Automatic annotation (TrEMBL):
InterPro entries: UPF0324_pro, UPF0324_YeiH-like. It is found in: Cell membrane. The keyword Membrane applies. It is a multi-pass membrane protein. This is YeiH family putative sulfate export transporter. NCBIfam families: YeiH family putative sulfate export transporter. The keyword Transmembrane helix applies. Keywords: Cell membrane, Membrane, Transmembrane, Transmembrane helix. Coiled coil: none annotated.
């Protein structure tokens, strides 16, 4: 047990190997399951599957083997997560901003900011949830689902159970959105062109994989616009995290060490720098594709680690309030997000 208290840099590799191997196996299973068309078509990404598989093992087998695995699991949940967020920048280029135009940028900014502030109000004032749960659910609904929740966790220092609750809301309502958005499109064609509807989907749906699935069900033009609008929202993750870090400092008790300093999420800044670098297309496409695949693996390992350390009892303790809050945010994204889209398109027409 002494080895568990040593600084990370002094720990031998064997301290991390069992846990990293376990998260790697769960990630491999998630990638394999996600390769089936039926599962991928339903919008279940490798990240979502990894946390589900992790929770299954975490609540059955893991309690019996946690001691040799704990070091590697914690390493994956903390350090691999940050590296994964940094490498996420290789999925983006600033040329994508030009593709959606000023209207797309304004729509994304308004939708993101309004959704997060509504989440803070609903969570803390209406449902009486703690600020961490409110922030995590708000981040997942307003930016990019599970990846945003994972990136927010180290900034606000939330418990694993709260992160899992937030991810669960993304899975539930994001999955509903995959089928709902294509279903209502025929009734909205007098207001939305396929491209405009794509921007609407990209600016209001949770996960990238879910946006791809829903956009594909509408039309190729809608799918392309939806993905670009969604990736623009992803780019806003870094400034969002900087804002949230400042907010955490502001709310810290006056007698705590947190009040005198701001926790700068350097991984978020590096994420933007990687996106800037990627915008110059200095690396061959094959190398970028490899880095994106590596990024998916790292994030999935972090999600698997999160699932391993989440107990079902903690989810039951959270109750129905987080789900009801996420439902209200989902309604806002559909109705309020739609109104924002129509208003901006009308102003810029």
């Amino acid at each position: 047990m002494t080895a568990l208290t040593l600084p990370t840099k002094h720990r031998p590799l064997r301290h991390f190997a069992p846990g990293l191997a376990l998260t790697a196996v769960l990630t491999g299973a998630a990638l394999w399951a996600g390769s089936f068309p039926a599962i991928a078509g339903a919008g279940f990404s490798a990240l979502t599957l990894a946390i589900l598989f992790g929770m299954v093992i975490g609540n059955t087998v893991y309690p019996k083997i946690w001691q040799p695995c704990d070091g590697g699991v914690i390493f994956a949940k903390q350090h691999l997560l940050r590296l994964g967020i940094i490498l996420y920048g290789f999925r983006l280029t600033f040329a994508q901003i030009a593709d959606v135009g000023v209207g797309g940028i304004v729509i994304d900014v308004l939708t993101l900011s309004s959704t997060f502030f509504i989440a803070c109000f609903l969570g803390q004032k209406v449902f009486g949830l703690d600020k961490h749960t409110s922030w995590l659910i708000g981040a997942g609904s307003s930016i990019c689902g599970a990846a945003a929740i994972l990136a927010t966790e180290p900034v606000v220092k939330a418990e694993a159970s709260k992160v899992t609750v937030a991810v669960a809301t993304v899975v539930i309502f994001g999955t509903i959105a995959i089928f709902l958005y294509p279903a209502i499109y025929p009734f909205l064609t007098q207001w939305f062109t396929p491209e405009a509807y794509g921007i609407y989907m990209g600016s209001t749906m949770h996960e990238v994989a879910q946006v791809v699935a829903a956009g594909h069900a509408v039309s190729p033009d809608a799918e392309n616009a939806a993905v670009i609008a969604k990736m623009l929202r992803v780019m806003m993750l870094a400034p969002f995290l900087l804002f949230l870090a400042a907010r955490v400092k502001q709310l810290a008790p006056a007698n705590s060490g947190e009040k005198s300093k701001i926790t700068i999420p350097w991984f978020a800044i590096l994420f933007i720098l990687v996106a800037v670098f990627n915008s110059f297309h200095l690396l061959p496409k094959a190398v970028v594709d490899l880095l994106v695949t590596l990024d998916t693996v790292l994030l999935a390992m972090a999600m698997a680690a999160l699932g391993l350390t989440t107990h079902v009892s903690a989810l039951k303790k959270a109750g129905a309030k987080p789900l009801l809050m996420a439902l209200m945010l989902f309604v806002w994204l559909i109705v309020g997000g739609g109104a924002i889209n129509l208003a901006i398109h009308s102003l810029l027409a």
